[in-house]
Amino acid sequence: MLASDIRAxxxxxxxxxxxxxxxxxxxxxxxxxxxxxxxxxxxxxxxxAVRRLRAMPSVLRCGHGCSIxxxxxxxxxxxxxxxxxxxxxxxxxxxxxxxxxYFPAVAAPAATPDKGQRVLILYENESTLPAIREIAQGLxxxxxxxxxxxxxxYSEFLDIVRFETPAYRALISEFLQRKYAGLDIDAVAxxxxxxxxxxxxxxxxxxxRVPVVAGAVSKRSLEARxxxxxxxxxxxxxxxxxTAGLAARLHPDRRELVVLAxxxxxxxxxxxxxxxxxxxxxxxxxxxxxxxxxxxxxxxxVATLGSRSILLxxxxxxxxxxxxxxxxxxxxxxLPGASAPSYSVYSSFIGTGIVGGELxxxxxxxxxxxxxxxxxxxxxxxxxxxxxxxxxxxxxxRQAKRWSVDPSLIPADAVLKFYNPPAWERxxxxxxxxxxxxxxxxxxxxxxxxxxxxxxxxxxxxxxxRLQLAHMSxxxxxxxxxxxxxxxxxxxxxxxxANAEAGVRIVERDDPDIEEVRDIFADIxxxxxxxxxxxxxxxxxxxxREIEFSDFDLNVAVADTIKLARSELAARRxxxxxxxxxxxxxxxxxxxxxxxxxxxxxxxxxxxxxxLPASLRKIDVETGLKPDGTRYLSVADAGRGxxxxxxxxxxxxxxxxxxxxxGLGLPICRxxxxxxxGDLEFDEDRQEGVRIVLTLPKVED
Length: 701
Known about the structure:
The longest helix has about 55 residues, at about 430-480. The strands form 6 sheets. The chain has a 6-stranded parallel sheet with strand order 4-3-5-6-7-14, sandwiched between helices. Strands 9-10-8-11-12 form a 5-stranded mixed sheet. A 5-stranded mixed sheet has the order 18-20-21-23-22. It is of the alpha/beta class and about 700 residues long. It folds into 4 domains: about 5-105, no CATH class; about 115-235, 3-Layer(aba) Sandwich (Rossmann fold), CATH 3.40.50; about 240-360 and about 390-420, Rossmann fold (3-Layer(aba) Sandwich), CATH 3.40.50.2300; about 545-700, Histidine kinase-like ATPase, C-terminal domain (Heat Shock Protein 90). Helix 16 packs across helix 21 (about 590-610). The chain is built from 23 helices and 23 strands. Helix content is about 50%, strand content about 15%.
């Protein structure tokens, strides 16, 4: 380290702390020697100043003409002593600074982080070129995938395609040498033939053992130079022959291949390479060249190409006017108006108007270069210094449709950019799966509808059977009441007969009593009405038509049933105590079916008390209203009761407590109650006999 660095304060920088990784004593000696060197230089400068001071005249003049007389005592002073004192002070000050900086470092030496592997990347173009951005992206991604924090990247964009003079190259070389002086570079990546040439000719200051990996360079660029053994690379073919062959196959009716290139040295060299590769004719295509034009000239020329031409676009870094361009931008300017399908060997041109080509993607080139650099940094030795990059046919589907390319001619391994396949091609399996699911769902729905239809038919048949069974039950009940019914009908008929005979006798008198005859006729009418009412009640019970619901009073239905069973109750010597709610109990239902429930419950109660003395046979019938508005009808007997297990089975068909019953009465009555929105159940709180309760919902207004 130079003393000038210490005086300038640069010894506080990174270099000082890097040296602490060596010998602390060596650092101290270096700092002291630097301080002594500075003191010597200061002493020399002071002595020169003293000699100049002594040589000065006694009168000094300022710039404005004023005179200043020096003191005579100045010459008498020991100026050498003054200089020595000043120099000693300067030396002590410098030494104090050195010691203050050294001892803290000895007491607590700074921790030096591990040095990462440094990769210098040289790009021949400027940083905004799309191809350069894609290569950089692939290169960084590949290197960072193995060690995201262990690699330091140093990128330099040489821009030597636009600035090709030797003076510029020398300036760049000197600048980089100064910039990276003292910095150990572990690997160099040179992107582009210009960067490769720069690495060969202008990087002599880098250790020859540092590997240099070239990318985006052609085989011809490598063969044109004698490369050292530490040079490796990924060879890009930029194969114009394969691209021209692809264009010829996709457009079999075309007969001319027009090659377009700019006016820069790179453009002209590239054009000569293509001229040698294709020759005057290639695969039935006559080869011609379009170069040496301005941007407007290129635009007009491609717009007037023949109907049997194919355009192959190389690069236009510079036109005939000397204007500098980015080749991709030029392609985007001129190709939309081209009158012939266009192709290129650069993947970055996809989207500018070219149909495609046999291309290497620049991201792929970056990946390949990064993989090779990574292997070299890991100490591996490649089998070959130079490996080819992968090439694949890439087509812009929009341009392929524009120029009516036959899809059957497209290679099977081609990559189609901007391809928007039809729904069947894009979602084939999803559509097949969806159609399968729809078919299965449709079949399921059809099956469900069929089952539901059958269920409804069976429910209808079941309801019809239940209706017929209920009718049979009513007929059976009326059969049991046949004697009572005959008695009920016999009473009014007997009364009618007696009254009629009495009326005949009264009429045969000489002086008949008209008032008595009127009373007789009134009795006959009353008896007839009673008989008609009995017949009407019988007709209601015997009806077998569709169930029709209507609004009626529950008290009326119960009272009519009690009248119908009055003779049966008398025959069975059973007393019925009926308690009706004073207010009407409107319900909605079928009148005859509710009569059937009431009659069944009354007859069951009579059967339950058949073995009791007549004095104990009593039935309690009650109608009422629950707090929630539910209507109820209860029938209770004074019999011996029913076991709990018998109560649970009483509502099952064909289970009866008597030998004469069929076990269908209560199941039918419960089904009728549930069809009315109510229920029929035993009163579990009843301690003596059996009390069964019919509940019906309240009628909404």
